[in-house]
Amino acid sequence: MPELIVGLGANLGDARAALRGAVAALHALPGVQPRACSALWRSAPVDAPGEDYLNAVVSVSYPFSAQQALQQLQDIEQQAGRQRPYRHAPRTLDLDLLFWGDETIDTPTLTVPHPRWRERAFVLHPLAEVAPRRVTPAMLAAVSAQRIQRLTEPFP
User: Dihedral, CA atoms, 28, 59, 32, 98, nearest 10 degrees?
Assistant: First the structure.
């Protein structure tokens, strides 16, 4: 089964509960097998105003297609009250399909790997915990100016 790696973020409402609920919903999908989950991270918004985000990265074995994964992730976002009033708007839950195994996908609705994954400390730091082979010290150095903090509380 392919490895699905998902970036999670939230900065509206009870962000911790939203992220925990998203991990539980993802793990509850038929045929999904949990692999790894990062710690919880607090990060400053990138290219947007607003409150700090809580972020994490989760990895699962996923038995369906990448397009099905995208639809299921969007369904989980909708169930959490996700709205898209404008680009980079604050959100109750954001789930990004970061990787689909080692596949490259470029369609009008889905680009994998995620096009900006290397530019975001809130992706790279938790990703390094879940899939360390994907993150190099040079990548982390390139985002070192972005404010991010690893939280010590248990997650999920």
Answer: 100
